[in-house]
Amino acid sequence: MAQCASYCRSRRHATRIGSSTVLVVLLFAASLSSAARSDESQPTESLPPLSSESDVVVVNDINERIRQSWQEHELRPAVQATDAEWCRRLFLDLIGRVPTVAELEAYTSGNSATKQRDLVEQLLGPDYLEEFARNWTTIWTNVLIGRTGGQQRRSITNRGALEDYLRSALLEGRNYGQLTYELITATGSADPEEENFNGAVNFLLEKLDEDGVQATAKSAQIFLGSAVQCTQCHNHPFNAYRQNQFWELNAFFRQARVQRKRDPERENRRLGSVVDRDFAGEGRGVGFDTRGEIFLEQRDGKLVDQASVHQKDAPIYYELRNGQLQVAYPVYVDGLALVDVFDERGFTHGNSGRLAQVNRREELAKLILADRQFDRAIANRLWAHFLGRGFTKPVDDMGPHNPPSHPELLDVLGQAFRTSGFDLKSLMRWIVLSEPYSLSSRVSRGNRQDDPALGRPPQFSRFYVRQMQAEQLYESLLVATQADATIAEAQRGAMKQQWLRQFSMAFGTDDGAEATSFDGSIPQVLTMMNGDLIRRACSTGSGSFLDRIANDSQLSNREKIFHLYRAALARLPSKQETDVCNALLASRGGDVVGSLQDIWWAVLNSNEFILIH
Amino acid sequence: MLIADRCKLTALSFRKRNPMNNLFTPRGMSRRHFLSHLAGSAGLAGPALALTQALSANAAGLKRNHKSCILLWMGGGPPSIDIWDMKPDAPTGGQFKPISTTGEGQITELLPKLAKQMHRLSIVRSMSTREADHERGRYYMHTGYVPNPNVEHPSYGSVIAHELAGKLQDLEIPPFVSIGGPSEGPGFLGMAYAPFQVDSNGRVRDAKASVEETRMMDRVELLGLLERRFVGENRGPAAAEHAKVLKSTLSLLTSQQMQAFQVRSEQQTVQESYGNSNFGRGCLMARRLVETGVPFVEVNLGGWDLHQDCFNQLQNKLPEMDQAMSALIEDLATRGLLESTVVLWMGEFGRTPRINGDAGRDHWARSWSVVAGGGGLVGGRVVGDTNEDGTRVTSDPYSSEDLMATVCRAMGISLETLFTANNGRPMKIADGGKVIGELFG
Question: Of A99, A130, B215, B268, which is most buried with the most CB atoms under 10 A?
Answer without folding.
Answer: A99
